Amino acid sequence: MIDFDMVKTGQRIKELRKEFGMSQKDLADKIGVAQNTVAQYENGTAKTSLDVIVKLAIALRITTDYLLGLEDESGLKK
Predict the structure, then answer these.
(1) Contacts of 61 (CB under 8 A, 6+ apart)
(2) Which of 57, 58, 62 is nearest to 75 (CA)?
(3) Which of 11, 13, 15, 22 lies most in the core, judged by the most C-beta atoms within 10 Å?
(4) SS3 21
(5) How far apart (Å, rounded) are the C-alpha atoms in residues 21 and 2?
(6) Across the chain, which distance is largest between two alpha carbons, in Å?
(7) Which 3 state secondary structure label does DSSP give 9?
(8) What's the CATH architecture for 6-67?
């Protein structure tokens, strides 16, 4: 089983959300969760389900591996 750093994942979610000019509410609406849930993801205080990771990747136009910290910005596996 792969263990990932939810704090790093949260930082990436926040950075990407801001790059796209989205509020937490905008992102929450796109992925079907409450705004406070997005805040918890970004703060690293809530883990996401696989379903939500996929929805986040689609909404933020990035790979799931990048969100989970398994690859860097260039797409190279760690």
Answers:
(1) 16, 20
(2) 62
(3) 13
(4) coil
(5) 31
(6) 34
(7) helix
(8) Orthogonal Bundle (1.10)
Which H or E run includes 71? none
Residues belonging to the chain = 78
Q: Which helix (H) or strand (E) holds 22?
A: none
CA nearest to 5, candidates 36, 51, 48: 48
Q: Which amino acid is at 73?
A: E
Residue pLDDT, tens place only, 21-73: 999 999 999 999 999 999 999 999 998 899 999 999 999 999 998 888 887 76
Residues 48 and 41 sit within 8 Å (Cβ to Cβ):
yes
Residue 17, judged by CB atoms within 10 A of its CB (0-12, 13-18, 19+), counts as buried
